[in-house]
Specification:
Elements lengths: L1 E5 L4 E2 L34 E3 L5 E3 L7 E7 L4 H16 L5 E7 L4 H11 L5 E3 L4 H7 L5 E2 L1 E6 L2 E6 L7 H13 L4
Helix pairs in contact: 1-4
């Protein structure tokens, strides 16, 4: 099941916008007592890196429900959405939900620097080849920001940033997306 919802603003992977100045640190993944749930998605084969350059399977960081927030340093709407995704991730209490930021900058070092400059508290992984995006959205031409909710139900996805919503509405929307997949 793939549900695609369009939103108001987004970027394509053409790198035509400069990132605004900001501050951040890439945090290591949080330890979890539960092991990730088995995934019936093509993400089993997708590898990403962390800020140190260590490579791992994206599926290793996923739980029963995982929100993947795709972004890039050069994408203006991403700069508006990512702090909200980070706030949601920090407030999520359900142990079976994971929230990961997936940076798709072609130059991985640009993504690492941008994530470090923004002090995100959620785990940030780097996928400069867009393998995770392609597996979920069936397109190599990334339209970001994009959210994918991956669960045993399949994948629900949204592209773009709806700037008519308030910050509180955005965070509530992310929570609704994730919790709709908990069983």
């Amino acid at each position: 099941m793939l549900l695609v919802l369009a939103a108001a603003a987004g970027c394509r992977s053409n790198h035509d916008a400069a990132p605004p100045p900001n501050s951040s640190v890439v945090q290591p993944p949080r330890a979890s007592a539960q092991s990730p749930a088995p995934l019936a998605t093509p993400l089993r084969e997708v590898t990403v890196t962390d800020a140190t350059g260590a490579t791992f399977s994206l599926a290793d960081r996923m739980k029963d429900v995982t929100i993947l927030a795709f972004w890039a340093s050069w994408c203006g709407p991403c700069q508006a959405e990512m702090p909200l995704v980070d706030r949601y991730a920090q407030s999520e209490q359900a142990a079976r939900i994971a929230v990961l930021a997936v940076n798709i900058d072609e130059n991985r070092e640009d993504g690492v620097a941008a994530a470090a400059a923004r002090h995100y508290g959620l785990p940030v992984v780097f996928d400069p080849d867009n393998r995770a995006y392609e597996a979920l959205f069936h397109s190599q031409d990334a339209e970001i920001p994009a959210i994918a909710v991956v669960s045993r139900d399949g994948v629900d996805s949204e592209r773009g940033y709806e700037d008519a919503m308030t910050d509180v509405q955005h965070i509530a929307h992310l929570r609704e997306l994730a919790h709709a997949h908990l069983h």
